[in-house]
Structure formats: C-alpha cells, structure tokens
Amino acid sequence: MTQLNVTKQEMLEIKQSKVELMDLELSTISSDITSTEVCEVITEVYGIVLDHVPIYKRAQNLIDISSLTPEEVSKKVIDAHLTQHGKPLTGMDIRTIINFIFGINLNGISSLEKSGISLFSKGQWISRYDYDLFAVHTGLMDIDVKVCITDRFTELTGLGSLPNELKDSLISHGFTYRTENGDCYLVSSTGDSVADDFKVETMKKIMAVINKSYAHMI
C-alpha cells in the first residue's frame, strides 16, 4: 500500500473525518484491493483489529469456514464479499461490506468524533477520547447494550451516575436503569443482535442530552 505524505494525526488536525481519511488511504491502493489492505486501512484509521471480531452468521454463506483457523476467517470472508460485489469498489461500498460482515458501522463511528461519547464494542475500544462524557458498551455480538458515565463526567459534574434527563430518555427507549451501577442496560429479548436503527437512535438520545446540557464540557 502506497504511503501517504501526511500522517493520520496531521489529517485529523485539518479536520478530516475518519471516513474521509479512510477514502484517502484507499485511493492510494493501485491494484485490486484485498482483505489484507482493507484490514490495514481500518486498523490505521479507526484502530480496530478485525481479526479479533466475530463474524455475523448472515455473512458466512459465501464460503465454508469450518476448516479455517480464527486468524484466517475474517480475511477469507472479506475477500469473498469483495469478489461478490465486483468492481468498482468505493469506500462506501467497503464500509457497507464491513458492517454486513461484522456489524461495525464505520460511518457511524466516524460521526462520534468530538461527540463526547466513547464506544466499546467487539471486545475493543472503537472510539474513545479523554474528553468523552458518556460511554456505550456492547457485547461481542451486540446482544446487549450498556450506557454509563465516564470518569471525566464525574470529575466535571460530581455525579456518580447517569443524569436524570438521560436516564429518563433511555428508559423511554427500552432500557432498564440499574441503581447499583448508575447505568442503563438493555439485552435483546430474542437473542439476536440489537438492530442498527436502535443503536443509532440510542446515540442520538445521548447526543441530544450532551448538546442541551453538557456541550461546553467537551
């Protein structure tokens, strides 16, 4: 993969979003893109290691993965979906494929920059900044979701649990408030992954509270 003349940090400093930076990195690949290059770009831009992320069952129909090692599965499945899609492949196409295979919404993650929300998912931090006020945690297959405060929020507000306005908003969205933890928690009643639309709406509710009451802290 051709190296860019500027670093990731320099691109972020000139207000390039992660989506824009990913597209820029992909544009430097002259040959047909492979799973290895896709994984390298996503790790470089987002800090996400796809080799460690479980694959959704819906994405396993193109190849037989029974004989593959855990280290081989991710790249083999990505390659199969890249081939099925055919050329040309845009950055948006690749992000759609990644979301289908792993349930990782790279477009949505990019929108978390400077939002005040950290995201822990697939066993790793997907987005996290020192100034974040709230954190969203999901399980390996997105079957459960937890929303909690960060140490930064406690430091700035003196509160040890979710503020009432956010707690009430999340409860109306289907979450349960856990007094002992000071957080809100939801688990899928069907055992299936929580829908993308639900996760997006959850983020919007958190952002609405931040924009109304805590934007000056970010």
Please mark out the parts with pLDDT under 50 across 5 or more consecutive residues, or reply none.
1-6
Rg estimate, integer Å: 19 Å
SS strand fraction: 5-15%
Distance separating the two termini: 36 Å
Explain the overall architecture:
The protein has nine helices and six strands; from the N terminus they run ααααααββββααββα. It has 218 residues and is an alpha+beta fold. It is globular and about 55 Å long. Helix 2 (18-27) runs antiparallel to helix 3 and helix 8 (164-172) runs antiparallel to helix 9 (196-214). The protein folds into two domains: 8-108, no CATH class; 116-217, no CATH class.
Present the secondary structure layout.
Blueprint: H1 8-13, H2 18-27, H3 35-46, H4 70-85, H5 91-102, H6 106-110, E1 117-121, E2 124-127, E3 134-138, E4 144-149, H7 151-157, H8 164-172, E5 176-178, E6 183-187, H9 196-214
Parallel strand pairs: 1-3
Antiparallel strand pairs: 1-2, 3-4, 4-6, 5-6
Helix pairs in contact: 2-3, 4-5, 8-9
Features:
6-stranded mixed sheet; 218 residues; 44% helix; 9 helices; alpha+beta
Summarize the structure.
This protein is α+β, with helices and mostly antiparallel strands and 218 residues long. The chain is built from 9 helices and 6 strands; from the N terminus they run ααααααββββααββα.
